[in-house]
Design a protein that fits this description.
The complex is a heterodimer. Chain A is mainly alpha-helical. Chain A contains eight helices and no strands. The longest helix of chain A has 25 residues, at 156-180. Chain B folds into two domains: 2-244 and 267-404, no CATH class; 411-552. Classes of the chains: A mainly alpha, B alpha/beta.
């Protein structure tokens, strides 16, 4: 019964996103390998501080495309795990570029269920099939594999897995309530 | 061997705090310069910058300040004179002392985890955020040391250890913290009352401790008595609590809940902690570094997992730590939608290093069970990462930040004041005209810098400063604090230096006199009978916003 409910829940969530998201968003900034012209400019800004010619080697070691690429990926991970943004407490992601705002992702009322689920799972890993947290982790890593612009499409896998996780949270609350009764 | 490594790590963190501390950042930002002139005036005159004798509340250009830090800075000014370090020394010493006190605190809470206190000290010592705040004069670093001392005292009292020592120490820490910075004024009473409630519910039979906690709560209440006398003291922090007052009713309530929840959650954001830090202003950080070294995000996540997994309401050490952690996020969350650097210092200095340390300890314990070859490879990679990221921090702080920080920390004002002091030492009867107009970037206020770095006598400056204050309060319709940037300073003469708003034609100056021009193009100066002796650029790298020191030809 739980499995059926979870499947229906996931199908409805996915369908809603497919219908609701503008078509143009599907092919915007979706590639991991898209050349980002801002990288060279950013390296230029950083190296401008290093007036001393003896710093050339250090400049090249600390400011290069590889480190910027890794930093961007890290920033993307932190942005797609910003719960206040994911759960619509604020229209802006933390450190949002150019103050861009985005459409709400998940309703704020669901945040407590996610937190309950997270704490319950951490305290007892056996309560949840391993595949659910694993997929949640993969969905975070996948969502971060895009340019740092907020785009609802890249969050689809994450949103689905968050919902699945919340489902576990709701089930846990209900179970506890039943026990008390 | 392990201890030696931890000692080296702590030593590196302390070295980062001490290296070039008297020259980087190269000037004072507005809060620092106000504390500096107050400290100088207290030592020379026994008054604040407006002539009030040994005040409890210090009025500066933008705010009302609690007295703790300013009296401590006055003490170091007494020995170091008008230098950058004199005003920053209490912050620097408090930051270093906090490292060792945190180690002691962790050892008290978790005595069975022997390495945890060493790891916590290393994590705090290498916190990029703590290093930055150790190098500038902010009350929050100083107050955080006393918050931690209060926590240690409370823990010892709960365990009935050396009550004769810890009761007075705890009380002293409480009063100093609450009279230094607004954040402890929320954290300490709320934490004490919660601890009292939990203790009352669970350990009601231990009456002596219950009564002592109640006594500490009473002391917290007493520490607020000055607020009744000086109503303006808390008016600004309290005004922040209201949030967006344009909204009403349900909309206002939901906006406040969203704002507070957002800010609380963002205290734990990876980008804040490990990539950029607080980007509000350069006095809050470099904007290029996180609060901790980036590779520590792994032990941070492991540490969070460890704390949630092992937390038990039956164990006082966990209750103590987690309750404090939850409360410490609120001073920032209640007043700002994004973490506000100075208000999250207690959280980032006390709780976060402990959380990361749990992660490091867990990884160390797991690694100890692996084969030697794998261990060598793993710790070799960690060492490389550490060297790279510590090097990157050093590069950003000592190279980038020297340039990026000048807009807020102004070396030009420092050097100009020191130059004028030398001129006065060489020739005490030298006539100097200090000309200033609103086109000048006087956000840090030139006159206050001149007062401090040129070592002008406080009595004359107090008279001028009061005239300036009257100007601010009488001529501007907007808040006199916010209008500070647009002020035209009044005319005044302080030991041979004429402070003058606007510009005087160089022809009218006496022969041999010096005049300092700010906010004017060199082409607009009549240099027929004068020449430029010295130029101090506000933005040195692009040679812009200069102060010209001009002398009259014979």
């Amino acid at each position: 019964m739980k499995g059926i409910l979870l499947t229906v829940f996931l199908l409805i969530t996915t369908a809603w996103y497919v219908v609701a998201i503008p078509k143009t968003a599907w092919h915007d900034h979706l590639t991991f390998f898209l050349k980002d012209s801002s990288v060279t400019a950013r390296i230029g800004i950083m190296t401008n501080f290093d007036h001393d010619s003896s710093q050339v080697l250090l400049t090249r070691v600390f400011h290069n495309k590889a480190t910027l690429f890794l930093e961007d990926y890290f920033v993307n991970i932190s942005q797609v795990t910003d719960l206040s943004y994911l759960y619509s407490l604020t229209p802006l992601s933390f450190y949002a570029r150019d103050n861009e705002s985005s459409t709400p992702i998940l309703p704020a009322i669901e945040l407590p269920f996610f937190l309950i689920a997270l704490v319950a799972w951490i305290r007892d890993f056996k309560r949840l099939p391993k595949i659910v947290p694993l997929l949640l982790l993969l969905s975070v890593l996948a969502a971060a594999l895009f340019l740092p612009y907020q785009n609802p499409v890249k969050l689809i896998p994450l949103v689905i897995m968050l919902r699945a996780f919340e489902f576990f949270g709701i089930a846990d609350v209900l179970k506890r309530l039943q026990r008390k009764q | 061997m392990k201890k030696l490594i931890f000692i080296i790590l702590i030593g590196i963190g302390i070295a980062f705090r001490l290296y070039q501390v008297n020259s980087l950042p190269g000037g004072f930002f507005i809060d620092e310069i106000n504390m500096a002139v107050d400290a100088k005036s207290l030592i020379e005159n026994g008054t604040d910058q407006y002539g009030r004798a040994f005040p409890f509340v210090f009025e500066d250009a933008t705010d009302y300040k609690l007295p703790g830090y300013i009296y401590a800075a006055a003490l170091s000014y007494r020995f170091l004179g008008p230098t950058l370090l004199a005003i920053r020394l209490p912050s620097l010493l408090a930051s270093i002392a906090t490292i060792f006190l945190l180690g002691y605190f962790v050892r008290l809470l978790f005595p069975e985890k022997k390495d945890l206190s060493w790891i916590s000290m290393s994590m705090l010592s290498l916190s990029l955020f703590a290093i930055h705040f150790a190098r500038i004069a902010y009350e929050t670093t100083f107050a955080t040391f006393f918050i931690l001392l209060y926590l240690v005292a409370l823990w010892q009292i709960l365990n009935k250890v050396k009550l004769r020592l810890w009761i007075p120490l705890g009380l002293a820490a409480l009063f100093v913290a609450n009279w230094t910075y607004p954040a402890p004024r929320f954290i300490l009473p709320v934490f004490t009352v919660l601890l009292l409630a939990i203790w009352f519910i669970r350990e009601r039979k231990k009456k002596q401790v219950w009564l002592l906690l109640a006594g500490f709560m009473l002391a917290n209440v007493i520490s607020f008595l000055p607020s009744l006398i000086f109503a303006k003291l808390d008016s600004r922090p309290l005004s922040y609590l209201m949030g967006n007052t344009d909204l009403k009713g349900w909309a206002y309530l939901t906006d406040r809940i969203n704002s507070i929840s957002t800010s609380l959650l963002r205290n734990w954001n990876l980008e804040l902690l490990f990539d950029k830090g607080v980007v509000f202003a350069y006095r809050h950080g470099t904007k290029e570094n996180g609060i901790f070294l980036q590779f520590l995000f792994v032990p941070y996540l492991v540490g969070l997992w460890y704390v949630i997994k092992n937390f038990s309401i039956k164990q006082w050490s966990w209750m103590f730590l987690v309750t404090f952690t939850l409360i410490a996020g609120f001073p920032s969350a209640l007043t700002s939608q994004t973490p506000y650097a100075t208000r999250i210092v207690p959280l980032m200095t006390i709780s976060l290093p402990i959380v990361i340390s749990f992660g490091v300890l867990w990884i160390m314990e797991r690694m100890a069970k692996q084969k030697l070859l794998f261990q060598t490879f793993f710790w070799g990679c960690v060492t490389l990462l550490f060297v790279y990221q510590a090097g990157l921090f050093a590069h950003i702080y000592f190279v980038h930040f020297r340039t990026t920080s000048v807009a807020e920390f102004t070396p030009a004002q420092t050097r100009l004041g020191q130059f004028i002091r030398l001129q006065l030492q060489k020739n005490p009867s030298q006539k100097i005209y200090f000309l200033n107009d609103h086109t000048c970037q006087n956000w840090g206020n030139d006159a206050l810098h001149l007062w401090y770095f040129a070592n002008l006598p406080s009595k004359d400056m107090i008279t001028w400063n009061n005239a300036f204050k009257t100007e601010r309060f009488s001529n501007y319709r907007i808040s006199p604090f916010d209008a500070y940037d647009e002020m035209v300073p009044p005319t005044g003469t302080v030991s041979g230096i004429t402070l003058f708003p606007g510009y005087i034609d160089t022809k009218t100056m006496p022969t041999g006199s010096l005049s300092v021009y700010c906010g004017i193009h060199l082409g607009d100066l009549n240099l027929k009978d004068a020449h430029v002796v010295k130029i101090f650029y506000w933005l040195d790298d692009v040679k812009s916003d200069p102060y010209y020191v001009v002398t009259q030809r014979n």
